[in-house]
Amino acid sequence: MSKSWVVVADSSRARLFTTxxxxxxxxxxxxxxxxxxxxxxxxxxxxxxxRERERNTGFSPHTMGREEExxxxxxxxxxxxxxxxxxxGRTSGEFEKLYIVAAPAFLGLLRKCYSExxxxxxxxxxxxxxxxxxxxTIRERLPDFL
Length: 146
Known about the structure:
It contains 5 helices and 5 strands; from the N terminus they run βββααβααβα. By secondary structure, the protein is α/β, with parallel strands linked by helices. The chain has a single domain, classed as eRF1 domain 2 (Nucleotidyltransferase, domain 5, 2-Layer Sandwich).
């Protein structure tokens, strides 16, 4: 049987699991976190010159746009780091098939950074955020054909 990796991820956390047979249990290989994706704008940047309070609303309307922009940049960086990790596993022969379970927006970011050889190992993608669940519950929510 071929060895498979199951990646369960969102913009700030990725859990890598192995499984050796269809419907087999998931064994956690690694838990990667990227806390920058959870931080607020003030925590991500030190230049506060553009952030001014307005009299009636509290913050400039541009503040929310910048915060989202910084979170998006952090998510992009994490997606690239995760793809590098997966590429390393692929080139060293640690898996033959790859299953990606990710929050929908993060799944889109991952797709953009797959190398062509890595994308050929992706057997299935599932757009769900299961990062906080235990391995047994994650396995129950996945198809039996892994």
